[in-house]
Every structure is written in structure tokens, then in C-alpha cells.
Specification:
single chain; 5 helices; 33% helix
């Protein structure tokens, strides 16, 4: 059971201008998301696909991550590419809008590099796994914080993963409550636990 538990900490690595991949397939993103590009490349190498429903073409992991980045309003396009043919050095490039130029992930908002390991982890781990996330909302705009609830629901539906997260974000929790009320996810499939500390001051 514990071999199918995957953890991502609250503080993620800063984006880099280049990433070296030696062909190794990581088990997860690392505690700080440092293996995220390696995971994307390994998934492409083994032809990993995500079912999109009857009559729809499956997404590659990179395509599904790019789709969610668009849905969350963060970028228009996202791709990982080698710096040259047959190179093991890669760059992550994004376009903010359809009319924008391609730029490196280091040259755009910090939030993308923070959410990227979460998106990849949710759809990269084996089906039926358990994912533990600490404060997934750090450095994210409130609208993106709320959108994380939809990402988690999507991962649960497509990959049957259980996601346990600790959060201080009312935006994220309210969106999840709203989706439960809208019956986008069954009440038996989600639970919220609120913790309140009682501070005792010695006299």
C-alpha cells in the first residue's frame, strides 16, 4: 500500500532554463517537484496516454497538462522540446496568448512552475495511487486555487487516484464544496476536515 503513496511538498523548485534528461523514468516528482520534466519526457517515451472518453482521442501526458494550463487561464500553449536534434538537454516553452512569442518557463509567472509538478503528478502516477499534497495553493492566483479542485476531480475520474491535501485556501475548499453540491463528485467520494487549534495561555 505504501508503495503506491506519492508525496509533493509545499515548496517547489524554481524553474530552470534547461533540463538534462538521461532517459531515467522517475517514480514521482520528488518532494520539491524537481523531477517534473523527466516525468513528462519518460511518459512520452513510453507512450503514456490519458483516456478522454468515448469517441475522443486520448491525450498524451504533456497534452493533458497543457490542456489544464489553458483551462486554468495560465498559458495558451506548453511544450517540452530538445535544444537540438538528439540532444539530452531540454527546454520548457510556453505562450501566454495565441499572439505571444514562445518564451522559456523562467520568463513567465512563477505560479506555472509551482502548479506544474502537481498537474503532472496527478496524471503520471499509476491508477489507484494515493497522492499527498501540502498547501497546493502556494504562489497561485485565487482563481487558479479554485481551479485546483477541478483538476483533482478530473484526476480522480480518469486515474482513480485518491488525493489527500492540506490547504489554507478558502477558494480551493469552496470550489470543492460547490462541485459536491452540483453533484460533479459524489458525497461519498469526497470529504473535508476542518481543524481548529485552541491556544491556551498559561497564567
Amino acid at each position: 500500500m505504501f508503495g503506491r503513496v506519492y508525496y509533493l511538498g509545499p515548496l517547489r523548485e524554481y524553474p530552470q532554463r534547461q533540463y538534462v534528461w538521461a532517459g531515467v523514468e522517475p517514480a514521482d516528482m520528488g518532494k520539491r517537484g524537481e523531477r517534473v520534466v523527466a516525468a513528462l519526457l519518460a511518459a512520452a517515451e513510453r507512450g503514456m496516454s490519458i483516456r478522454m472518453g468515448r469517441g475522443k482521442r486520448p491525450h498524451s501526458l504533456e497534452e493533458h497538462v497543457a490542456w489544464w494550463l489553458r483551462e486554468l487561464g495560465l498559458v495558451h500553449s506548453f511544450n517540452v522540446e530538445p535544444v537540438a536534434k538528439d540532444s539530452n538537454i531540454y527546454r520548457v516553452k510556453v505562450k501566454k496568448t495565441s499572439l505571444s512569442a514562445d518564451v522559456l518557463i523562467t520568463d513567465i509567472g512563477f505560479g506555472i512552475s509551482q502548479i506544474l509538478p502537481m498537474l503532472v503528478l496527478c496524471f503520471y502516477v499509476p491508477e489507484g495511487s494515493t497522492i499527498i499534497l501540502e498547501q497546493p495553493e502556494i504562489h497561485l492566483h485565487p482563481s487558479v486555487q479554485a481551479g485546483l479542485a477541478d483538476v483533482f476531480i478530473d484526476a480522480y475520474r480518469r486515474r482513480k487516484v485518491q488525493i489527500i491535501f492540506e490547504s489554507h485556501s478558502g477558494h480551493l475548499l469552496r470550489r470543492l464544496q460547490r462541485r459536491i453540491a452540483e453533484e460533479k463528485i459524489a458525497t461519498d467520494d469526497a470529504a473535508l476536515y476542518f481543524w481548529k487549534w485552541d491556544i491556551v495561555i498559561p497564567t
